[in-house]
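User: structure tokens for this one?
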Amino acid sequence: MRKPSKESQQKSVRDWSRVKLTCVGIFLGLAWVALWSRAGYLQIVAGPQLAIQAERQHVASEIDKGSRGEIYDRTGRLLAKSVEIEGLFVRPKEIVDVDKTAAYLAKVLHMKEQRVKQKLQSSSNMVYLSWRVGDRTAAKIREAALPGVHFTKEFGRFYPNGHLASQLMGFVGVGDVGLEGLEKSFDVRLTGRQAKFVVQRDASGRRYFFDSQGRELADINGHDVRLTIDAQIQFFAEEELEKAVTTNNAKAGTCLVVHVPTGEILAMANYPFFNPNVGRGISPRVARNHAALDVFEPGSTMKPLLVAAALQERTVRPDSTFNCENGKFGLAGKVIKDTHSYGVLPVNQIVRVSSNIGAAKIGMQLGSARLHGYFEKLGFGRPTGLPISGEGKGLLRPVKAWSVLDLATASFGQGVAMTPVQMAQAFLILANDGVYKPLKLVADPDGPAPPRQPFRVFDADVARTVQRIMREVVHEEHGTGRVAQIPGLETGGKTGTAQKAGAGGGYGNKYLGSYVSFVPAIGPEYIVMVMVDEPEPSHYGGVVAAPAVRDVTLRMLSYLGRMPETVQLAKSPAASAAEMPAASVGPTKADKDILAIAASKSVTTRAIEVHSVPDFSGMPLRRVVEILAGKGIVPRLEGQGLVVSKQSPAPGAPWPGEKQSEFVLWLARPS
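Assistant:
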């Protein structure tokens, strides 16, 4: 058989090549048509539905809540701040081993295992175990890598000064909601708002904020609040109040400091204290702002207000006299008593020695209608209007319900009840030369409109007359407020010893001792008030409350640079060497700065002018340097220490002139 020729073999190979190329072309063409068909279907037919699905997978919305606003004092010191904390929650459906997870979480969270187990077995999708988890605890839980256990960011309230002004500030509960105090009153302003943001997710589910007008620019944080409180004066008030309550074995106490020209409250202290950073276990009794919520009978602190009303109505004159019946006065089947037997006393001495009988006769001469009318003008029976939730309005019965005995007892502060801030508001009228001025607690934003606009209650000469009478209470013989004297500074005051009502009606054997002070006595710039509840064994306001008022005043004036040069600061808590750093053995940097400024003759002070050199012995170096700097004197310091032990020129000598010898201070360490 003959073999195919070489030429025929080559032709056969070429024919199959064409077939292959044709098949490949047909296949590619069909594939191309299929792809275009699929693309057309996806774009035209299924496009809208796929776009929705893609948006669900790659774009999501997130709700974010701003942080709570901060609270500051008048000088900008931080009183309350929101900090980011971690909350712990579980998803019960994701938990693999309930027993193991419950045992571990109960141990690290210090919770009962059975309680944790119940939450882990809940039918809910998400259950919170703790709203606030510490950093160390959170780290331990993360290391355990327990399935179904998750963390979330929350905002928690932090009070950097602990119990400082705690009853005034209040506290915040779960969900960043204000529950008490100013936190509740300004909850709407302080609370951060919620905002919805659009975010993009990658294939792993991680989210990216891409809206340039979103989270970064949205104003969702709460607004701040600035108070009239001065944190340093608040500290002085709380420390001296605590001392007054504990020293006198009392149950509680309140202290208020008011700046008369503005009506601003500089301190509102309550004792016992509580720490608002500890959210659980706070007793409602301790957390109460007693200064604004609790009512009491003022007792003898009512007498200056009574006398002002009687002088205003011209029913008495400053030299009018009343028979105080040698300490016992029968009226309507009852006996009104004084602590001492007094005969005939003028009006000023009735206030000075605090005669109940004299006050009752002044009130009876004034009459029920007029006295009740002045009580209403002074603000008794209605809240002061401070932005404090639940502020008390006191107790002032209708004048029609008053008997002759009610008129007499109301004249010396029984049968009428008020809050401490109401009492401060009434004395603010006297201190402000007879013009009503509302108390102020919030500097920014402006607080709510006062319930009443300023108006005159007493003539200026009447208010000044009462101020002089209150000065006698402190500085004249037999004055009940002599304990509150501050050498070199004339203050006015009035003591109060109110018998508290008993549980079964009538009056019991418990008292409230109080003292109200004007600083200075005439044309006061500050009002300082202290009340001590149920002191024992002594219950007189001049004994239990007046010393605290004196010490608060000393420390406040020293802090404000208003201390008279003649006051021996070494006797006051503000000047005690114990308050100075124990490690210091010489002048501090601040003292050296003062000396440098004094050398440039650029220092001025508001201290009281005296014509001779005071006795600086025992006084703190820093205060002496401030006094001398105000005179343009740069002293030479000898020795090491913080307290002046000796000086040259000697006390009583004329101030050194420009051509006289230098001023030398010898220092000693505090003993």
